[in-house]
Hints:
The structure holds two protein chains of two kinds. Chain A is of the alpha/beta class. Chain A has a single domain (2-242), classed as Rossmann fold. In chain A, 40% of the residues lie in helices and 26% in strands. In chain A, α4 crosses α5 (144-156). By secondary structure, chain B is an alpha+beta fold. Helix content of chain B is 53%, strand content 16%. In chain B, the strands form three sheets. In chain B, strands 5, 6, 7, 8, 9, 10, 11, 12 and 13 form a nine-stranded mixed sheet that branches. In chain B, strands 4-14-1-15 form a four-stranded antiparallel sheet. A two-stranded antiparallel ribbon of chain B has the order 2-3. In chain B, α11 (370-410) runs antiparallel to α13 (443-450). The model of chain B is unreliable at 248-253 (pLDDT under 50). The chains are: A alpha/beta, B alpha+beta. Chains A and B meet through α2 and α3 of A and α1 and α10 of B.
Amino acid sequence: MIRINNVTKIYGKSPNSFVALNDVTFHIHPGASVAIIGKSGSGKSSLLNIMSGLDRPQSGEVIIDNRDILAMKQDEIDRFRANDIGFIFQSFYVDMRDTCYQNVALVCEIANMPYSQHRRSIMRALEEVDLADKSKLRAADLSGGEKQRLAIARAIVNRPKILFADEPTGNLDSETGRLIEDLLFRYNKEKGVTLIIVTHDIDLARRCDLMVRIHDGKIMSSTEKESSIRSRKKKEAKERRRR
Amino acid sequence: MRRVYLVRKAIRNLLQNKSRTILTSLAVMISSFVLILALAAGEGARQYSNHWIGANINPNAIYIARDRAVIDFATTQNNAILEYHPDMTLTRDGEIVRQMTEQDLKELENHPDLAAVRPRPTLDIKYMQVEGSDKKFVAPVIGYDSTLRYSVAAGNLPPLGTSIEDDQIVIPLRFAEIMVEKGVVSKPGDLVGKKIALLVSRHGGHLTDEQIAKAYERGGADAIRELTEELATKRVELTVRALSDRLSSISTWLTGTVQISVNTLLGMKAFVDEGTDNHKKYTIVSAIVKNGKTPEQVKESLIKLGFAASTARDVQAFLFIIFGVLEAVVIGFGLLVLIAAIAGIVNTQYISVLERRHQIGLMKALGMRSSDVAKLFRYEAAWIALIGGLVGLILARITIFIINPIITDTLSLVEGERLLIFQPFESAIVILALILIAILAGYMPARKASRLDPVQALRNE
């Protein structure tokens, strides 16, 4: 469960200060897919940065698995990012001069994964995105869609609990974008990973379980899909019975 | 992140920027090259002078003069007006110095810690002539120095400490070769055993009225001229004992002179100087320290007696000063290049931080610790220094290998004598120091990288 409680983020100092997030509160169920939508400058990227521990708000709480990540020390936040979350960016940010394998290996190295597990984990991640046969190819030699698939492989190699995707299809044509979306949602459903997508693509947002609309730093609406509510309730009831 | 990953990633980053890496490490390379070469030259010079002095000068030898200017290389009295003293003379080098008298010599001979006290004058001869040839030659002549070891090209020389006989002469091989060119003998070795006549002359004015009257009666004015000539020249016939080659390695300062026994030389000098202020006076005297005293102790006692003295160690110290200054100059140059290298590393790393903003931002977003980012940049700086340092070392080794025979040849050193001696231990320290300095130089850029805000770095432009 991710709980965002009363988060306020202000950039700059008064009188030139700018309120990016204004007392934002919402909750995300584990394994859900969430779209944060809004115009540029609405505060959606700020929200993503704060949820992932890259940025700190002036006030509020971000509670993930019952721990407030804003209260963590820098070392713990680094470890949390290395082990529990994956990032996907609009501009891919893959290292063009490294091979696909090396790009994915970076995460294993940062997360201090035992060396003996590197190869298996990296190849499995590359297989998930259908790039196993290109593991030795340099990232520069890949197409745009392949680069984003490589970025996804890098994001999932350490089996994160949460995947953050910032405009994952923004730099891709619609057909390739659709394939990337399919890949992300499939991973979300199959592995039960929480998927949080920042986008202004309304079609992409509609595919998510939860759609959080944000405008001028405030949440305008938070809509959960009927089907999603039903399946979640079913799942929760099953949990209760088991207990 | 584990150190091994950081080190590997640093190498990969450098390899991906080959030309920049090479250019940056170039300055480090030159610096390491110069420093290692300077160390090699310094050690070579030290060993060379040690070896030379050990091999050629009796460590107990001491050189004594009345005047410090004779001994001290640094003092010169040119352009100075000095108070007159009857013992003064103008040396070959154009210096006015006070000479030692017979009385001084006596004093030294009676010194309890000195043996083999010998004046060391040079003699200006009129000419010298080899038997069976009418060619005449002029050359500087000095007394045979039995404290030095010479190498012999032909004939033989007595062991160290023993002089040649009074009727013997030693000719440098170089002179013998010139005599061969002039047709005196057919090959240098033929000179050994031959007789050579040495002629010295002095000003006339030694004839008595009686001698003049007798000569006039016998043969008029011609007879007087003949008699004057006869009395004004002294001819000594000597046998060539050996041809001296260069001293086992040093320059030519002693091998460019003809040598005869000190006794013979003193006899001829006494004849030339008779009736002048220089008669039986000497600028420098050599002696051997005895009674187990060190030359330094005896030197002190001689200075108290008003003499100036120089020991074998003084000669060495003088050489060491020269070598030390030269080495310092070269090391200074190396350090200047090092400063340029540091500036290069700082600059390159700063640019690298700017260029790799996305990479740094991404690594931090993926959970890389700031301290690891800083380490990555410091390791890159270290690699640049290691690469530059090692290439510099290899180049220095190659240079030493190539240049040593050339130096040996140019300076006419003895075969196998090397002036550049590679110092593996010191060179390794130079490279380690370069790495350390590079890491320090990379400190600021590394800090800049570690403080980079990933949110800023990854913002979409």
